[in-house]
Amino acid sequence: MLILGVESSCDETAASVTRDGREVLSDIVHSQIPIHERYGGVVPEIASRCHVEQIVSVMERAISDAGIKKEDLDAVAVTHGPGLVGALLVGVSAAKAFAYAIEKPLIAVNHIHGHIAANYIAAPELTPPFVCLVASGGHSHIVLVKDYGQFDVLGATRDDAAGEAFDKAARVLGLGYPGGPKLSRLAEEGNPHAIAFPRPDFGLDFSFSGLKTAVINAVHKMEQNGEAVPRADVAASFQQAAVDVLVRNTMRAAKQTDVKTICLAGGVASNALLRSSLKEAAEKEGFSFFVPPPTLCTDNGAMISCAGYYTYKNKPFGATPDLNAIPSLSGFDSI
Ligand code: KG4
Ligand code: ZN
Q: Any idea which ligand is nearest the CA of 136?
C-alpha cells in the first residue's frame, strides 16, 4: 500500500509517502520555527495561516519526491488530533479534499500513535509487544503497546509534559524557542550535578511542574542576589533531573510487564542524554532498545503514514467525510 501521510498538528507542515507503512519513499517537513521564534513560542493563529500557505506544496512535493503519481496512492492518512485546532483543521481539510478527489480512502490518525509508529520505520524488525516512553511537547506517557493499535497506558504526567518543562526551563534561561534543543546544547557545557533539582516520585506517573518551578526559583533567586547565573550548570542539572525521572519510571514500568523491548518516541526523544541513558538502562536489564533517528522523533509525515497503515489494517474502511479535528483526542483508545 502506498499511503500519503499528512501532519499539521502544531508547527510543522509535513507530508510523506510510505510503502506498506515502513518504507519511506519521501519525507517533506516545512518547519515554522523561524516564524514563531520571535514570539518565544508557537502562536496558534499564525501556525494555522502558515499551514494554509504550505500544505498543498508540501503534499505535492511528497508525491513527486516519492517518484509516483497521485493516482498510484492507495490512501491518504492525516493527523486529526490531538493538537492545535486551527492547525489540525488545515491538514484534515486538505487531506479530506485530496482523498475525495482521487477517490481513495481517508485514514484518521492519532498523533501519539504516529510518534510510536516512528519506531516501526526505524527498526524493520520491531514488532509489538513493547513498552514505549512517549515524551513530546504536549504529552508524556509510558505505554504498553500490546499490538498494532492496542495500547495500555502504564504511566502519564500529572501536570506538565516533559517537552513543556524543557521549553519553560529554557525560557527562564533566556534561550528562546524551541527550548528543548537549545537547552540540551547549553547543558553540554555544564555540570549535571551542580544543582540538586527535585526528582518527584509518583510511581509510574510523572510530575514536571515542581522541577520547572525549582529551576525558575533558583534562577530568580540568583538574579535577585545579584549573582551571575551559571546557565550551563542550571541547564545540565535540569536536564539530568528530567532524564533521571523519565528513565527511572520507564524502567520501573517495563519490569512490571512481560515485554522484552523498550522504545522511545516523541520530540524529547531527540535529546541525546535521554537516548543514551534509556538505552544503557534498558540493555543493562536485558531489554532490547529502539529509538528513531531525531528527524523521525520530532513531528513528521512518515510516522503518520506508518500509523495510518496499521490503523487501516485494523479498520479497513477509512474515515467518513465528516471527519473533524479533535484537539484533545485521547491518545490511547485502541483502534
Ligand atoms: O513531538 P514534538 O515535535 O511535538 C509535539 O507533539 O509536541 O515535540 C516537541 C517538543 C518540544 O517541547 C521540544 O522542546 C522538545 O520536543 N525537544 C527536545 C529536544 N528536541 C525537541 N527536548 C529536549 N531535548 C531535545 N534535544
Ligand atoms: Zn508530536
A: 1
Domain count, the chain: 2
User: Does the structure show a pLDDT above 80 at 23?
Assistant: yes
Q: Is the CB of 178 under 6 A from ligand 1?
A: yes
**280-303 pLDDT tens trace:** 999 999 999 999 999 999 999 999
Asked if residue 167 has its Cβ within 6 Å of ligand 1, the reply is yes
Q: Based on the domain organization, do 132 and 105 belong to the same domain?
A: no
User: How far does residue 208's CA lie from ligand 1's centre (Å)?
Assistant: 15
> Ligand 2 center to residue 300 CA distance, Å?
8
Q: How far is CA 231 from the centre of its chain?
A: 27
**pLDDT reported for residue 301:** 98
Residues lying with their CB under 5 A of ligand 2, a single-atom ion: 136, 299
136 Cβ below 6 A of ligand 1: yes
> Residue whose CA is closest, atom 7 of ligand 1?
137
Measured distance CA(211)–CA(329) in Å, rounded: 27
Question: What are the grid coordinates assigned to 192, written together?
Answer: 549535571
Q: How far separated are the first and last CA of the chain, in Å rounded?
A: 19
Q: What is the CATH number of the domain that holds 56?
A: 3.30.420.40
- DSSP assignments along 239-256, one per residue: HHHHHHHHHHHHHHHHHT
Shortest-distance atom of ligand 1 to CA 163: 12
Q: Is 279 strand, coil or helix?
A: helix
Using one digit for the tens of pLDDT, what is the confidence trace for 196-238? Answer: 999 999 999 999 999 999 999 999 999 999 999 999 999 999 9
Ligand number, closest to the Cα atom of 266: 1
| Same-domain status, 305 and 288 | no
Nearest residue to 144 via CA among 157, 130, 134:
130
pLDDT in tens, 312-335: 999 888 899 999 999 999 877 766
* 177 & 275 share domain: yes
Structural domain harbouring 100: 2-117+296-314
**Same domain flag for 181 and 308:** no
